[in-house]
Amino acid sequence: MDYLAFIDKYGLYLIPALVVAIINYKNTAQSYKPILWYIFFLGFSQLVEIILLEIYRNNLPAYNISSLVVFLLFLYILNSWGYLNKKNRKLIVALIIVSTILFIVEVIYKGSLFIEINYSKALYSFLSILFALNAINQTLFKDSSLSILNAKNLFCITIIIESVFWIYLAIFLNTSFNFTSDFLEAIYLVYRYCKIFVISSLYFFTCLKIPKLNSNFITFNN
């Protein structure tokens, strides 16, 4: 196993962000703590995937369920920032219900959580991109943010990039298509490089940019 595959398999790319999140958690501004919960969940999900790999040689149950959970967490984060106004609450609730039902239907259709769930994940990813773009728009033009690369925008940019790749994987790794194994390996390798070098770095810098209540903690000023 090459070192990139090892880092990917055991989620080592999340360690820098997790370390900063753990150290700074108590002194993080309350409205930003949900971002750290999101990071903690990614770490927890990765741990469950590792356990499933060791027991069943298949981590797809955790991988599939986490796609729904991170989408719901992202909506919660946007709501905690006040970016989901009351007029849209009914729409958001409807999206949550429809997304959850679609996930359950796809699991039933495929007959197992040990088979990758593609269509639901593509939907969550597409919606996440739309919500993230709206959040960035509100941060830049409504909140009059002094820094383009603040924690909120960095987090949303990370969500957009990761969601684009999830759609990309949902298309190319769909078992309905008869792609060759070499082609699929090449497709996943692109995602692996992005996850290890780009997405992990963005999560790390997001954690650094989160406002702290005490300047003695690890931070990266705006």
UniProtKB/TrEMBL annotation:
The keyword 4Fe-4S does not apply. The chain crosses the membrane at residues 6-23, 35-56, 62-84, 91-110, 122-141, 153-174, 186-205. The keyword Membrane applies. Keywords: Membrane, Transmembrane, Transmembrane helix. This is YhhN-like protein. It comes from Solitalea canadensis (strain ATCC 29591 / DSM 3403 / JCM 21819 / LMG 8368 / NBRC 15130 / NCIMB 12057 / USAM 9D) (Flexibacter canadensis).
